[in-house]
Each structure stands twice: as C-alpha cells, then as structure tokens.
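Pasting two entries for a bug report.
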Amino acid sequence: MLALFLFLILVAVVLGVIGVAASGLMYLLIIGIVVFVADVLLLGLRLGGRRGRRPAR
C-alpha cells in the first residue's frame, strides 16, 4: 500500500514538473495535481477505515 502511495506521489511530481517546464503542456500539471489529490484522499480513506476495527482494551 505504501509503495503504491509513493509511486503515485512520484508520478504526480514528475507530471507537474514536466507540465511547468514544457510550454503548452499545462494540462500535465493539472493531471499531476489531480493524481496527487486522489492519492491523498485514497490514503486518508485507508487510514480512516482502520481505526474502527481495533478491539477496545
């Protein structure tokens, strides 16, 4: 799970850098931002769902 999260963060950063550096490829920056936001939301849902499954002590 963590490897997928880090891979998607890397993809988002690379798309963002290419989108900023290359003229006319601003849509890559937007795609990178969308991938980053989706990745953070996915991680939040995964971590938030695990809290309720632990038995009370």
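Entry 2 (this is the one that rendered wrong in the viewer):
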Amino acid sequence: MTAPLRFPAEWEPQSAVLLAWPHEGTDWAPRLARVERTYVALVSAITRFQPALVCVADAALRKHARGVLATAGVDMQRVRFFEVEYDDTWLRDSGPITLREGAGFRLMDFRFTAWGGKFQAGRDDRLVARLRESGLLVAAAYRRVEFALEGGAIETDGAGTLLSTWRCLHERHPDQSRNELAQVLADSLAQSRVLWLEHGYLEGDDTDAHIDTLARFAPDDGIVFQACGDPADSHYHELTAMAGEIAALRTADSRPYRLFPLPWPRPILDEGRRLAASYANFLIVNGAVLMPAYDDPADAEAAAVLARAFPGREIVPVDCRPLIWQNGSLHCVTMQLPEGLLA
C-alpha cells in the first residue's frame, strides 16, 4: 500500500530551520558585515525556540560563523553546521520542500534556475541532493523533479490547498496553461486544489512576484497579506486589486477566509532604488513568528496583526533592512524542516 502524502503547513511542529551563512563568495560581499549581523540576530531568534541547521561553504567559514554566534550568546547546543557549496543564501528557493509520507518524509528536489535564469545556480541546484547525502536528516524518500519551482512561490494550508501567483509560474513555464501548471503542482505536492492570484508585486523584487512576499496562509482558514493604504504609492492599485482577489477566495468548504491585512511601511531606498520591504515575508517557528522589521512606525502595527493571526505565538521582530538590499527578507533566506526530519 502506498503511504499517503501530505504537504504540512509551516505552523506545524518543526525540527529545525535551514539557512546558509553569507560569505565573500556570495552577492552579500559588498555589505557582508551588515548582513552578517542580521544573520546573527536571525539565528539567535530561531534558537530561542528550536535548532538551526546552518550551511557553511567550508571549514573556515564554519569556524568563523561558530565564533560570531557564540560571541553573541547564541545557544550553540541548538546550532548544527553543514559544509556544502552554494551560490547564494536564498534557501527558501533552493532548499528542500518536504512532504510527509505516512510516518516518514519525502524530499522534493525541484529544478532551481535562480528565478528564471537571472543568476548562476549550478551549486544551489545540487543542494537538496547533497543535504540528503549528508546524514543530517533521517532516511527519507527523495524525488528529483525537472520542473522549475521555488519554495517562495507556493503556500499551503496543510490541508490540500495551494496558493501561488500566476505571474511567477507563468514566467517560469510560459508554454504551459493554467490547468497544466495546476496539475503539476497538485500531483507533485499532494494538493487537491490550487488557487491563483493575478495581482500583486513589489518594486525591487526579482522573483516575479513570489507569493511569500504578498500573501500567506494562517491557521484556522486565515490569510495574512501585504496591503497598501497609500493612494499615492506606486503599489496602491496592484495591491488593492490583490486584496480584492483574496477577499473573493473561498475555503475548500466554500467559506470566506479570515483576512489579516498588514500595514504598508514607508519606502526604503538604496541609491535611488526602491527595496522590496514586505511584512508578509515572516518566518513561523515553534511557538513564535519572526517578523521582518524595518525601523518603521508600521512595525508595531504589523506585529499586532501577526499576533491576531497566530494567537499564542510570540512575535519577534528581526531587522531586515540589510536583507532587502538583495531583494528578500526572513522567509526568503530560510526553510523549515518538519518535526522528526533532523537526525
């Protein structure tokens, strides 16, 4: 008998969070000291609640990362390292998408093309296979899928509903119809239905509108989404249209979702370029939600919204201004591993 497959929701129990340490060989090099401080804060926040599995490029980087984390007072009993080559640190998109397969797991290794061939991705595309071979995970089934897909492009409620943006999936697979793409997603990720958003984007985002910068599922049929209340802002019409689409979505049993609109932060510019600051790019861990913070008056309101969407969890702000220089935030640089997967 074939074991049932299920794609767990992010708020289900986790064994660890996977991330990759920035170094001089990555695009972080020009601002490495600043972004490293953010990674220290991020690992410190994660390890308050659960282990962190940190990818490092070599033994020297392992020693360095261990040193700065220990100096910062991080609980090193909750930090494990994995030496592996990588092109960049966006583990949400190059890391494993894990399904539960009966009492075990299945690691889904989709083809990673660096967001449609925008950057080099050869080493990142091998990361899931290397992780499987490392011995750091329990024995799990493995499936390589020659279909371009990033983890940031999909959201699941853990009960068979997937949410994505048509803009992103169509850009990756322009020759496939909506029905064809939905079938691939449903079949490979054990989903019973796929919901599409037609609207929504952020300036400075090079992922072609990943869903994890725009709208996220929450427990008990909730959707948290990035709103824009400033009619003078360039995002206003697109995000308002997206909000209307989300309001029209229905659960599997035909009820409206509970909606949690997030406030809109002030524009953050870098040498005239607007950066993709979104509160929707939060990371859920055991007992907490780690929230991107931007030193903005809206930070407190965003934390209050997340507290309502995830009752009983601590909301922990992490300064993400250094991260959005490279067009991503907390969720983009991490990938959760379900409870029981870490050996």
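Dev reply: Rendering is fixed now. As a check, the viewer should reflect this: Residues 165 and 197 are 5 Å apart (CA to CA).
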